[in-house]
Amino acid sequence: MKNTLKKLLFQALEDCYKQERLNSGVVPDDILIEVPANSDHGDFATNLAMTLAKPEKKKPRQIAEALVEALETQNELFSKVEIAGPGFINFYLTSSSWYTILDDIQAKGETYGLSDIGKGKKIQVEFVSANPTGPLHIGHGRGAATGDALARLLAACGYDVQREYYINDAGNQMETLGRSIYLRCLELEGQTVDFPQDCYQGDYIRDFAREALADKGAAFFTDNEEEALKYCSEVGGGKILKGIEDDLREFGVTFDRWYSEKTLYDRDEVRKGIDFLREKGLAYEKEGAVWFRTTDYGDDKDRVLLRGNGVTTYFASDVAYHKEKFDRGFDTVIDIWGADHHGYIPRMKAAVAALGRDKEDLQVILVQLVNLLRGGNPVAMSTRAGEFVTLQEVVQEVGRDACRYVFLTRHSDSKLDFDLELAKQQNADNPVYYVQYAHARICSVNRKAQEEGLAEPAPAEVDSAALTLAEELGLTKILAQYPEMVEGAGRAFEPHRITIYLQDLAARFHAYYNRHRIVTEDRAVSLARLYLVNRIKTVIANALALLGVSAPEKM
RNA sequence: GGCCCCGUAGCUCAGCAGGAUAGAGCAACCGCCUCCUAAGCGGUAGGCCUUGGGUUCGAAUCCCGACGGGGCCGCCA
Question: CA of A543 and C1' of B28: distance in angstroms?
Answer without folding.
Answer: 34
